[in-house]
Every structure is written in structure tokens, then in C-alpha cells.
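Field reference: sequence -> structure
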Amino acid sequence: MSVIRRPLAALIVAALLLPAARAAQAQDYPNRPIRLVVAFTAGGTTDFVARLLSERLRSLLGQTVIVDNRPGASGAIAAEYVAKSEPDGHTLFFTTVGAVAINPALHSNLPYDPVKDFAPVGMAVFNSTMLVVNAAMKINSARELAALAKERPGAITIGVTGLGAISHLGLELFQADAGVKFQAVPYRGASQAVTDLLGGQLDGLFGDVPTVMAQVKAGKLKALAATSQERSAIFPDVPTFLEQGFPDTVANQWAGTLAPAGTAPAVASVTSRAIRRCAHRGAASATSCGRRDRFPPSSDRARR
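Structure field:
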């Protein structure tokens, strides 16, 4: 056989064997613990949902699912770590809209490409974000807070759970909509932000419903408005920003799972099917804080 034909024959054989190799890889997956990387600190909504999901995936996949918190840079640290990981399905990115949709619009030098560097695995939840204040504050609506901000421009402190996070987007939209200026205070997650709001170090906070739900129900925090298009089923008395005359303050949160680009579709589908089973079994029932806070059905995922 000629020198040219030998490499060509080897390539042909490799191409013929590749589908079988990928099928074998999917049959063997997962063969060790799975790392579920979260871009926020422990104690926040994303971390809470990830841990809830990891417990159910562990029973469905027969392997330990480790939640690995890698906060910082609005999710870029976690995203880069996963993007550069081995594409074998054992390192996954549990992300929100911030790292893959908002960050690219804010930064031109990200160390990852949200489209080219990841393969979709499955959507997990949709979630509402609310503007809350300390219960002692004599403000009862977003309109009243906007009026106060006009009297005291830049003096009212509003916490956000990360620069470029959906909470940050909500704040910016509200400021533009109301024609006011707040002092944004960024955190690396929701846990410390809620603590500071309760302690009086903040005037307000844009936070996901599961993060602030207990404190609102306990009367320690006061919910002024929701960024969703519809009211929360858990807080039906809290009007949306739309209802209060701020039509552009709409910012819906979602969380889903991505794998590094190059992950075999057959491998990704194993976890995807497990996530769908979690949805059917109600694994995220604790996060069902409104009409949009849910696992989307398969037909919805196909359209997104």
C-alpha cells in the first residue's frame, strides 16, 4: 500500500469506528462523579436549585453529583472553567441568563463564547425577580420608591446579586424606566445581600423569589414589585412593574445546564432525559414561586 493510501485508509477506518465509539461512551456514562459548576456562592437561588437538582440526578444517574461553586466576574470564571473542561459530560455548567446572555452584551473580551464553547443539555427553571425593601422602610410600591429616588438621586442603595446578573438588569431597566438614579451595590450572590438588607446596610434589593420568599412571608422584608410579566402565584398581592407604570422593567430569570462544546450528543442526552424526569417528578417544586417559575415542558424547550 502506498504511503499516501495508508493514512487515508486509517482516516476512513477511524471515521467508521467513531459512531460506535460514541455509542459506547454514552452507554458507559456516567462512570465517575459529575461536577455541576455554579457561578454563584452557596445559599443563593441558583445554588439552591442546583443542589436540589443534584440530589435527584444522583438517584437517576447512579453517580454522585457535586455542586462546585465558582463565583466571580458575573459568571465568567465558572463559564471559562467549564468551557475548557474535558467534553465527556462529567463537568456541567448550571447557569442563569447572566453568564450566557447578558455578559456577552456587556463585555467584548470574555474568555469564552456562549454559543461556540457550550452544548445545550437542558432547561431547569424559570424564575421571577422582585424588588424588596426592609419592612421598616415607609415605602409600599415601586412608584413610591421612584418618587423618593427623584428627591434623593444616587442616595438610595439597591443591592444586586452580581454585575451583569438578571437582578442588575432589573435595576438598570427600572432606573431608565423611572428616570431616576440609585446607588447599585453588587454582591457575589444573594445570601450576603439579604443579610445586609435585613441589617439595614441596604435600602433595597433585586432578588429572585426563592431567595427572599421566607423573609417576605415573615414580614421582615417588603415586596414592592415583580419583574415578571404576570404576578407570582405565591405573592399574588405583589404587582408587577408593568402594572405600576414601568412597561420596560421586565426581566425574567431562567436556569439551565450546559456542557462543554464537543460533548457527544448521546452523552448530553443522558443528562437531558434525567432532567426531564426530574421535571415530571417535581424535583424543583420548592422553586415554583409563580406562574413562570417552573420546569418548562419539552415542547417549550424545543422552541427556546
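Note: Residues 1-5, 283-304 have pLDDT under 50 and may be disordered.
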